[in-house]
């Protein structure tokens, strides 16, 4: 493919934006070019000096909508403007207004200081390219993108490659959002079906209760009738009427047989009632879990739509600054879970449980993590038990998920964040084998 479908930015070379400090004074002894570059301070390209076609991808990738809205409120009236309109104004003013460009640059440096420092230690193009690939693979794209584009040693080819990689990532994020919406619709449908099924089970349960009560009444009436027949037999025996006594005996035997049949029927109904009660309890528990997952998904979608204007959710507070190790699962949902964690300020690492990744790497990953999650439907039983034992030995909180879906992850972390550890537990936040 000779020409990409998007317009590539015109990226300056490193030599075009090295400051005047790189030019030696007349009374200084000349140095070789490589020595001057190594001795030069780590000057960085300013946002206002970049090609204007880069501003859209930098602002949209490296700043959240809430941060951008708060910053642009100092220069324009953002009340009533959508996130898209605020973004357009920021991109336009970044190339036309020096004060806006300087404020945006400071905000980007402040947010991605760690990445800028990490990239600033490198002086060779190969090292910069390798660190960019590492950040791209681990999902730490915003900070690395800003650091690469402003690094004075980044060659035009590397900046162009980073621009193209971020462009393609925007398509992947859009596809992941559409997949989340499809999963949300499927969860709502499944939840409605389970509620309908639970209602039917409740109706059947009420019918069985009524039938059991009728059987009890019939059995009580049969016992009264049998007692009356026995009394009549005893009163008729001395009279010597053998035919009457035989008739009464047959009637007693018939009533006794009816009573036994009623008792057997009542025991059968009691067993069926117990089974239905257990099934109803299981369905209610499943419906409650699906309701929690649905609520977590709706809260996350509302948070995305609101652009961060609402108060931070329990999920966002739990993930901010936390290192999440995800063991097992499916590659299709792991990418969406990684986006969810990084969007809320956390770090994410995945280990497939030993299918392709070596199990020996799991110990090092556990030492890095501050929270371990694993879906019980996508990990073998032995690996799950070994993972639990390792987490308990290291006092590391872990969360078993009902499934490998994004909704199950969000609901479990949200519930874990809201659940306080019991007093005197000593096992830290999260579940333990002793206290649940």
* Total count of strands: 4
Count of individual domains? 3
* Cα gyration radius (Å): 36 Å
Q: Secondary-structure element order, as H and E?
A: HHHHHHHHHHHEHEHEHEH
What percent strand? under 5%
If strands are numbered along the chain, what order do they take across the biggest sheet? 2-1-3-4
Structural class: mainly alpha
Layout of helices and strands, plus pairs?
Layout: H1 33-39, H2 52-62, H3 65-72, H4 83-94, H5 98-111, H6 113-120, H7 125-138, H8 141-150, H9 156-236, H10 242-306, H11 314-319, E1 323-327, H12 331-343, E2 347-351, H13 361-368, E3 371-375, H14 381-393, E4 398-401, H15 406-418
Parallel strand pairs: 1-2, 1-3, 3-4
Helix pairs in contact: 2-4, 3-4, 6-8, 7-8, 8-9, 9-10, 10-15
Structure keywords:
436 residues; Rossmann fold; 3 domains; four-stranded parallel sheet; disordered N terminus; disordered C terminus
Describe this structure in words.
The chain is mainly alpha-helical and 436 residues long. The protein folds into three domains: 14-154, no CATH class; 184-306; 314-418, BRCT domain (Rossmann fold), CATH 3.40.50. The protein is built from 15 helices and four strands. It has helices at 33-39, 52-62, 65-72, 83-94, 98-111, 113-120, 125-138, 141-150, 156-236, 242-306, 314-319, 331-343, 361-368, 381-393, 406-418, and strands spanning 323-327, 347-351, 371-375, 398-401. α6 crosses α8 and α7 runs antiparallel to α8. The chain is elongated and about 125 Å long. The model is unreliable at 1-6, 8-41 and 420-436 (pLDDT under 50).
């Amino acid at each position: 493919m000779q020409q990409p479908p998007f317009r590539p930015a015109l990226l300056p070379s490193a030599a075009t934006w090295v400051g005047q400090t790189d030019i030696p004074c007349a009374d200084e002894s000349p140095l070789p070019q490589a020595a001057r570059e190594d001795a030069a301070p780590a000057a960085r390209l300013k946002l206002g000096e970049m090609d204007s076609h880069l501003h859209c991808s930098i602002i949209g990738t490296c700043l959240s909508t809430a941060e951008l809205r708060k910053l642009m409120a100092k220069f324009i009236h953002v009340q009533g403007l959508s996130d898209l309109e605020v973004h357009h104004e920021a991109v336009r003013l970044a190339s036309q207004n020096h004060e806006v460009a300087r404020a945006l640059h400071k905000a980007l440096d402040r947010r991605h200081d760690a990445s800028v420092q990490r990239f600033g230690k490198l002086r060779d193009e190969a090292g910069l390219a390798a660190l960019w690939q590492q950040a791209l693979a681990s999902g730490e794209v915003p900070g690395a993108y800003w650091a690469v584009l402003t690094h004075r040693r980044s060659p035009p080819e590397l900046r162009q490659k980073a621009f193209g990689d971020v462009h393609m990532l925007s398509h992947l994020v859009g596809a992941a959002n559409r997949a989340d919406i499809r999963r949300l619709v499927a969860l709502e449908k499944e939840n409605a079906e389970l509620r309908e099924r639970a209602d039917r089970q409740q109706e059947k349960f009420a019918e069985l209760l009524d039938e059991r009560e009728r059987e009890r009444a019939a059995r009580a009436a049969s016992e009264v009738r049998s007692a009356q027949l026995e009394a009549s037999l005893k009163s008729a025996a001395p009279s010597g009427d053998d035919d009457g006594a035989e008739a009464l005996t047959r009637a007693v035997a018939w009533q006794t047989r009816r009573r036994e049949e009623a008792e057997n029927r009542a025991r059968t109904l009691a067993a069926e009632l117990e089974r239905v009660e257990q099934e109803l309890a299981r369905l209610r528990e499943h419906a409650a879990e699906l309701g929690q997952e649905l609520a977590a998904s709706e809260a996350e979608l509302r948070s995305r739509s609101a652009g961060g204007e609402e108060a931070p959710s329990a999920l966002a507070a739990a993930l901010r600054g936390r290192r999440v190790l995800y063991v097992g699962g499916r590659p299709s949902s792991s990418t969406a879970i990684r986006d969810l964690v990084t969007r809320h300020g956390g770090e994410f690492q995945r280990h497939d449980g030993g299918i392709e990744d070596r199990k020996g790497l799991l110990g090092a990953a556990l030492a890095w993590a501050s929270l371990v999650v694993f879906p019980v439907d996508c990990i073998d039983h032995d690996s799950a038990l070994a993972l639990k034992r390792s987490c308990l030995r290291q006092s590391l909180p872990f969360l078993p998920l009902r499934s490998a879906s994004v909704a199950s992850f969000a609901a479990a972390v949200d519930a874990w964040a809201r659940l306080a550890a019991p007093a005197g537990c000593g096992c830290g936040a999260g579940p333990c084998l002793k206290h649940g």
